[in-house]
Design goal:
Oligomer: single chain
Strand content: over 45%
Strand order of the largest sheet: 1-5-4-3-2-6-7-8
Distance between the termini: 31 Å
Shape: globular
CATH topology: Hypothetical Protein Pfu-838710-001
Radius of gyration: 15 Å
Structural class: mainly beta
Low-confidence stretches: none
CATH class: Mainly Beta
CATH superfamily: Hypothetical Protein Pfu-838710-001
Number of domains: 1
Number of helices: 3
Length: about 160
């Protein structure tokens, strides 16, 4: 299945949390984080998932994604086999007109980073942007979770943002 999404920084404001209809804790790790194919293990709330993603298109808008729900205990065991560097975050889901934005508040080594993404049906689809949405970072690999697992946000130079 082809995943098409845009990614944005969230402005320094907690307002997006007030608009959320759902909040879930996520912990994830990578069995493989090569750009050509990432293999991710995720625990979202009380559910486990195994996800394989292909290489992103040149503009970063789309890539192949396969995901399967797996038993929670299996996800917990697979997390033990992952490469160093886990991603921990709260995910807020926010409805904005016909789209659902997933806004992530990162924890741990990536604390202080707030990102939002929205999935699209096609690459030219228009999206109504909420007021709390900041700079678009679609295609900027620094904001991929697989990158953040190796190079946490807390270690970045402030001039790189």
């Amino acid at each position: 299945m082809q995943e098409i999404e845009r990614k944005f920084l969230i402005l320094d404001s907690p307002d997006f949390r007030e608009e959320a209809f759902s909040k879930t804790r996520i912990v994830q790790g990578y069995l493989n984080s090569a750009p050509e194919r990432t293999v991710r293990v995720r625990i979202r709330g009380d559910k486990g998932f195994l996800t394989i993603k292909g290489k992103s298109s040149s503009d970063g808008l789309s890539r192949y994604e396969w995901e399967k729900e797996i038993p929670l205990l299996e996800a917990e065991e697979l997390l033990k086999l992952c490469e160093p560097g886990k991603i921990e975050k709260f995910r807020y889901e926010i409805k904005v007109e016909n789209h659902i934005f997933e806004a992530d508040e990162f924890l741990g080594e990536n604390e202080g980073l707030f990102l939002a993404e929205v999935e699209l049906n096609n690459e030219s689809e228009e999206v109504q942007k909420p007021l709390w949405l900041g700079k678009e970072v679609t295609g900027d690999q620094r904001y991929y979770n697989s990158y953040l697992s190796k190079f946490p946000f807390k270690e970045w130079q402030t001039d790189r943002l």
